[in-house]
Amino acid sequence: MKSEQFIREVNEELQWERLTKLWRRFGPYVIGLAVLIVLGTAGKVGYESWYDKRLQDRARIYAAAERLLAEDPVRAAESWLEMAAEGEDGFAALARLRAAAAFDDSGDRERALETLRRTVAEATDPLVRDLATLFLAQYRIDEEDPAAVIADLEPLTGADRPFRHSARELLAIASLRAGDRERAKTVLGEILDDATTPLGQQQRVRELFDALGGSEERVAS
């Protein structure tokens, strides 16, 4: 699954209240960025002119790195990390996540993992920490012990967690990799039974659930 696609699907899961708070803070500077969800990290916004100017300056730096991404993803990633090091705010959290995706797109999986691990370890906002953990699991799922990935994902699947749908889907995939077909079907069934699951994810999960025989078992029971 491509990084941008994954981010878009995660974005669908946020509550409207969280999105409106983010919009009030960042306005037009980040419209169209699929990872809008992490921009609420800095807390309440001051409206003094100096703060607004600083915000605009950081938005321009972020946008410049975004334009550089297609030409040189490594330089774009390093630019985001430099910006993130200059201050802890919503743009810093967003920049770290985009840097990880850019490193991965460039083929440097190790730097992508390193960036995400550091984000998980240092994030003070639970939302950012959960999202970084989710992305980290996405990258690790094909390469590491699935039991370790499962252990990191399980806390994210609770009913009150904002990324529970994506976490459950990854949990099902990790369970399959661990050889636990029954648990995978159980988790996929929970996703399908949850009325708040995004439609696109419902359709994808239904295909996997059917492939595992889940629907036939439900009919038989």
Features:
221 residues, elongated, single chain, 2 domains, mainly alpha
In short, what is this structure?
The chain has 221 residues and is mainly alpha-helical. It has helices spanning 3-12, 16-26, 49-68, 73-85, 90-105, 109-122, 126-140, 146-153, 164-177, 181-193, 199-211, 214-220.
Describe the structure.
70% of the residues lie in helices and 0% in strands. The chain has 221 residues and is mostly helical. α4 (73-85) runs antiparallel to α5 (90-105), α5 runs antiparallel to α6 and α7 runs antiparallel to α8. It starts with a helix and ends with a helix. It has two domains: 1-125, no CATH class; 141-221. The chain has helices spanning 3-12, 16-26, 49-68, 73-85, 90-105, 109-122, 126-140, 146-153, 164-177, 181-193, 199-211, 214-220.
Contiguous helical run count: 12
- The CA-CA distance between the termini, in Å, is 33 Å
Overall pLDDT metric: 76
Helical content (DSSP H or I, runs of 4+): 55-70%
Give the percentage of residues in beta strands.
under 5%
Order of helices and strands: HHHHHHHHHHHH
> Taking Cα atoms only, what radius of gyration do you get, to the nearest Å?
18 Å
What oligomerization state is this entry in?
A: single chain
> How many individual β-strands?
0
Secondary structure category: mainly alpha
Low-confidence stretches: 10-50
Rough outline: elongated
How many domains is the backbone divided into?
Answer: 2
Largest sheet: none
